[in-house]
Amino acid sequence: MKYCQLSDDGSCVERFVCPVEGCDFTTRLGPGALRMHLLIKSDPEVGGRYCEAHDRFCRAHAGELGLDVVRYLSNLPRVQVD
Ligand SMILES: [Zn+2]
Fold first, then answer.
1. Cα angle 53, 32, 69; round to 5
2. Phi, psi torsion values for 64, nearest 5 degrees
3. Choosing a second label site near 62 at 20 to 30 A (CA), which of 29, 34, 56, 69?
4. What are 17's strand-pairing partners?
5. Rounded distance from Cα 54 to ligand 1 centre (Å)
6. 58 CA from centroid of ligand 1 (Å)
7. Which residues contact 77 (CB under 8 A, 6 or more apart)?
8. Between 13 and 66, whose confidence is greater?
9. How far is the CA of 79 from the centre of ligand 1 (A)?
């Protein structure tokens, strides 16, 4: 599934991954953190962190990782980490 990497048995989410090609950002924090990553990287106002590939992705998939999707993703069963 896009945006997340499942555990080996496919039963739950191992981590959330950035869908932009060439970017190796992953997080266990949740889909909100992933969304923030995409927003920050595609905002030219944020000095130094701007990335054209992320900007292009966000334009092409505008609204794709909206709040509904974030909510959906955050309700998926997740690998428990302590
Ligand atoms: Zn990324």
1. 85
2. -65, -45
3. 29
4. 26
5. 6
6. 11
7. 11, 12, 13
8. 13
9. 22
Structure tokens at 65: 């990782």
Give the distance (Å) from ligand 1 centre to CA of residue 55.
10
Nearest Cα to Cα of residue 39 among 28, 22, 51, 27: 51
Q: How many residues comprise the chain?
A: 82
**Residues 4-51 pLDDT 10s:** 999 999 999 999 999 999 999 999 999 999 999 999 999 988 778 899
Dihedral over alpha carbons 25, 29, 35, 36 (to 10 degrees): -90
Taking the centre of ligand 1 as the mean of its atom positions, its distance from the CA of residue 73, in whole angstroms, is: 17
- CA distances in angstroms from 34 to 4, 9, 24, 26, listed in the order given: 10, 23, 12, 8
